[in-house]
Amino acid sequence: MQYQLGATLVEFVVVVPTLLFLLMNLIQYGLLYHTKSQLNYATFEAARAGTTANANPTAIRSAFTRAMTGYYGGGTSSSELAASYAKAAADGASVRIEILSPSKESFDDFNSPALATKLGASRVIPNSNLAFIKCPVDVPGCKADPNTNNSGQTLLDANVLKLRITYGIPERKQIPLAGKFMNWALGLLNSGDSDAFRKGLVVAGRIPVVTHTVMRMQSPAIENGNASSPGPGNNGTPTDPGPASPPGTELPRCPATDPMCASDTPPGGPGPGDEEEPPCF
After folding, report:
1. Would you state the pLDDT for residue 61?
2. Which has the higher per-residue pLDDT, 9 or 279?
């Protein structure tokens, strides 16, 4: 009987700490999801502010900080909200906001000198009448072909604001032991990470989280230290950046006489293999 009690004690010592560790990691992943959700919202608010404020980095960061107020405690009164906002602003060193588009090359291809003079800026990408122009009206001979220009974009592409925001979850918002384990694992698995900012977050005991967003500009984009992003783009052919559709999710077919049907039949008539009806939207 004494041997059985001793065996039970050994099993308890081995199993219970393991279960507690797994439970703490599950809670940590839950907190990670909560942070990602809050960060997605803040990134959306930052992009929305940028689209109406000429892609101004200060407006983008200010909107991001305001949207993160709830993550730092929120509040039910003006003083509580101000205190939470101050915490979010003080933690700004753990946030990196990158404007991926428009890039420096976008301004090389589509700058409007007349609009820049009017707005008192160095270089500006126009945002009006985009459905009818391929170049700024005062630069009709711009490099509009994404196959050959510097940015790999069209004027429409250059009017898309793309943000990437990297944030480090502070230690005070991590589960004890589980957060340190996750941080240690990130440091070990990503030891070859070439991103100095992300590596710095891990070294500081933070857990990096990255979000992206894309939004159409609602005002002319003004150059303000935009990053360089050269390349031929998609060779002039738009592609879906999302994952491929799973099998069985193809669009239903519809007759070409349906006014809501978008035909994919080539101008010269159907060719071999084109006997099927076009997709119905």
Report:
1. 95
2. 9
| Average pLDDT over every residue of 64-93 | 93
Burial 230-267 (b: 16+ CB within 10 A, else e): eeebeeeeeeeeeeeeeeeeeeeebeeeeeebeeeeee
pTM exceeds 0.70 for this model: yes
Q: Which band of pLDDT confidence, cut at 50, 70 and 90, is reported for residue 251?
A: low
Q: Identify the helix (H) or strand (E) that includes residue 215.
A: strand 207-216
DSSP-assigned letters across all residues of 115-142: HHHHHT-S-EE--SSTTT-SS-TT-TTS
C-alpha separations of 93 from 57, 88, 151, 170, 198 in Å? 15, 10, 30, 11, 12
Q: How big is the CA angle at 161 (ends 157 and 251), to the nearest 5 degrees?
A: 60
Task: Tell me which DSSP letter residue 184 carries.
Answer: H
- Burial status of residue 193 (CB atoms within 10 A of its CB: 0-12, 13-18, 19 or more): middle
Count Cβ atoms below 10 Å from residue 190 Cβ, excluding itself: 14
Q: Write down the mean pLDDT value for the chain.
A: 82
Closest C-alpha to 50, from 61, 65, 40: 61
Is 155 within 8 Å of 133 (Cβ atoms)? yes
182 in helix, strand or coil?
helix
- The one-letter code for the residue type at 204 is A
